[in-house]
């Protein structure tokens, strides 16, 4: 048994390590960029709502439609449909760079809704209190809405990472690299189910690690605020 494991590590160890690295890189970078785009959109959605601090029905409607339309497109279809755009932006549609563009595009609207939901959970009396003290809209956004919803935002970031982790496996179908690509190329195309099994186990472990980190960080922030 030990000899079999040693031989497996010798044959596929480096490949699997590279797959883990590529998966983490593409997912982490895509999550970060998705928040750069989605966080402001989520803030605009909540502040421009009918009961927001600065209601703007046309803006809220347009943003809502854009978010809903992009979210309704299945990722595997989006992945293929925007290949020309991906090549225009990063110069290739393959590998980690080629996967990041579609991952960001599909995740940004998701992040916007996650942020909107997190901010909507903030007690309205806190916003009213800030307004009564003469706080500006910008101060309310940063010091009340974002600050009070920080634990929820952290959990949302972990959820986004895990969701993109799954999408990155789909990206493996078009040569994006990572554990998904390894599972497909070796497990499905070459019938090497041992490699596929190990790739799946590594995916499960990584997801559990991210979820645990997200829960611990959000709980500590929540405890600190109280």
Automatic annotation (TrEMBL):
Transmembrane regions: 24-47, 59-83, 89-112, 158-179, 191-210
GO terms under biological process: D-methionine transmembrane transport
Top-rank lineage group of the source organism: Bacteria
Protein localization: Cell membrane
Keywords of this entry: Cell membrane, Membrane, Transmembrane, Transmembrane helix, Transport
Membrane-topology annotation of the record: Multi-pass membrane protein
Keyword flag RNA-binding: no
Main localization (coarse): membrane
Gene Ontology CC: plasma membrane
Residues in ABC transmembrane type-1 domain copies: 20-214
NCBIfam families: PRK10782.1
Family in the record: Belongs to the binding-protein-dependent transport system permease family. CysTW subfamily.
The protein's name: D-methionine ABC transporter, permease protein
Gene source species: Bifidobacterium ruminantium
């Amino acid at each position: 048994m030990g000899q079999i494991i040693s031989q497996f590590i010798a044959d596929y160890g480096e490949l699997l390590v590279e797959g883990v690295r590529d998966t983490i890189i593409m997912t982490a970078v895509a999550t970060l960029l998705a928040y750069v785009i989605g966080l402001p959109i989520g803030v605009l959605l909540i502040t421009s709502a009918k009961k927001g601090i600065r209601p703007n029905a046309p803006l809220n409607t347009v943003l809502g439609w854009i978010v809903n339309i992009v979210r309704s497109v299945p990722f595997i279809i989006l992945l293929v449909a925007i290949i020309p755009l991906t090549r225009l932006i990063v110069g290739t549609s393959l590998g980690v760079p080629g996967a990041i563009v579609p991952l960001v595009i599909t995740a940004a609207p998701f992040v916007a809704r996650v942020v909107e939901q997190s901010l909507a959970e903030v007690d309205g009396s806190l916003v009213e209190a800030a307004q009564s003290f003469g706080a500006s809209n910008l101060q309310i956004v940063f010091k009340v809405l974002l600050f009070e919803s920080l634990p929820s935002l952290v959990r949302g970031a972990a959820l986004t990472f895990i969701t993109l982790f799954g999408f990155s496996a789909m990206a493996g179908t078009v040569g994006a690299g990572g554990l998904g690509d390894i599972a497909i190329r070796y497990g499905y195309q070459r019938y090497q189910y041992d490699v596929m099994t190990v790739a799946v186990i590594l995916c499960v472990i990584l997801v559990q690690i991210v979820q645990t980190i997200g829960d611990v960080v959000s709980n500590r922030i929540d405890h600190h605020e109280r």
